[in-house]
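no rush on this but wanted to send it before i forget. what follows is a protein written twice so to speak, once as letters and once as structure tokens for the fold. mainly i need to know what kind of three dimensional shape the backbone takes. thanks a lot i owe you, the record is right below.
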Amino acid sequence: MFLSIGIVIVVLLICLFGLLLKQSKKPTGVLGILMMRHWNAVYLPLVKWTMNRVELADHSIILDTGVGNGRSSAYLLNQKKALTVTGIDLSEAAISQAIKKYSDDAIHFKTMDVHKLAFSSETFDLVTAFQTHFHWDDLDQALHEIHRVLKADGMIIFACETAKISYFLPELKKVVDFQAYMSRLGFSFVNHDTTDQWTMYSFKKK
């Protein structure tokens, strides 16, 4: 009997993990809204910590990927050198929440897949990926698209919990391996920093 209960508990935990992972990739419904509120509290400090380590170009045009309900995009717009911010997310529910919460002529939200960016080439000075790139189904394809829409010498920033890289992208958890991978895709290394929980990288388009 105890063995049967244990099996049921394990199955339930696996199902719960799968549900939460699905919501992390594409939040929907009430659970998705609640999770996005939680992300605001947990991950905005990550965004602030990261941006304190980045030197923006004047009048930067920024693309913020995987924005959830848009809090990171709103923060980016408040950077003194930011001109406009476009926030994208695969989830229609997330973008709907973002549009409701943040209204400004210089901030735009769109439902969009990072693997198929509907922007002209060389549009953005900066692309950000906060707590999201390890969820991309095809990292190569997404980075090819990001490389295309970045201006010459444009920058991409990755920042997330270090544990997420170790779990989802173990082959890229070493700094030297990630640098080599990005170099093959046309990016040159700029910066890397860590805390006991977080990791950030910045690269420039070659």
